[in-house]
Write a structure and sequence with these properties.
With 245 residues, this protein is an alpha/beta fold. The protein folds into two domains: 131 residues, Rossmann fold; 100 residues. It is built from ten helices and five strands; from the N terminus they run E-H-H-E-H-E-H-E-H-E-H-H-H-H-H. A five-stranded parallel beta sheet has the order 2-3-4-1-5, sandwiched between helices. The model has no long low-confidence stretch (mean pLDDT 82).
């Protein structure tokens, strides 16, 4: 009997290289494992997933993606799969996709033929081209402890805010420029979860505010701070947050 699979046609997996690869392998295990009680991935079929599987194509460029690197996808996806079969395209380092490469994938990612799945692996969601990112279900495999415990970020997670305390904590923490994308990812994840929760509870005003925050954060992610200006970046975003809600 073929395995049923609850995996989106396109999934963006965010985390470290090892954690994203592990999550991708776990998703494929759902499709390919033939052992009913295999929970540890110890059966022979699962072991093949971790090496090479005939129903998966892994792509890992050394530098930027080029169109010729993606040619095998266009070739394979033209073949119809049998009912219940699955095939996975796993694109590591998805943040290296160029606009031209992303555009070549859009139709396939948005409406893949039956049984085909795209898994995009990246360290930070906001580094992936927005046209790809918006078509994917996003999974986060980890949160960096230092980032998650940041005090000033909590002022972006609710409506009750003390500007004086925010500026004090921002000054104390002195956030690093390179941490900004991951901090924004963390906030987008928080508000995305809030948005879904409010919709499920039919709290439409709260859901609308959550969507405003998601939009604000996504826009901010398109304009990373210049070197040495992260505190100005977060101060300005704080002011824009109050105007948005």
């Amino acid at each position: 009997m073929k395995n049923a699979l609850s995996v989106a046609p396109a999934t963006l997996i965010i985390g470290t290289l090892e954690s994203t690869k592990e999550r991708a392998q776990n998703l494929m295990q759902q499709a390919f494992c033939k052992e009913q009680n295999c929970a540890s991935g110890a059966c022979s079929n699962c072991k093949n997933i971790h090496i090479a599987h005939h129903q998966a194509l892994w792509i890992s460029p050394e530098k930027k993606y080029t169109l010729d690197i993606l040619d095998p996808i266009s070739h394979k996806i033209n073949f119809s799969l049998d009912d219940g079969d699955h095939f996975f395209f796993v694109l590591e380092k998805a943040d290296l996709l160029t606009p031209a490469c992303a555009n070549s994938l859009l139709k396939m990612v948005e409406e893949p033929p039956h049984g085909y799945h795209f898994l995009f692996l990246a360290s930070q969601a906001q580094l992936v081209i927005s046209t790809i990112r918006s078509r994917c279900h996003t999974i986060y495999t980890h949160q960096t402890t230092r980032i998650a415990s940041s005090h000033f970020l909590r002022h972006f997670m609710g409506n009750t805010v003390s500007p004086v305390l925010f500026l004090k904590e921002l000054q104390t923490e002195c956030p690093e420029d390179y941490e900004t994308p991951e901090r924004l990812d963390l906030l987008i994840k928080h508000w995305s979860e809030q948005h879904i929760a409010h919709l499920l509870e039919q709290q439409l005003n709260e859901a609308a505010n959550a969507q405003k925050m998601i939009t604000l954060l996504q826009q901010a992610a398109q304009h990373a701070p210049m070197p040495g200006s992260s505190k100005i970046f977060w101060r300005d975003l704080f002011l824009r947050k109050d105007n948005a809600l």
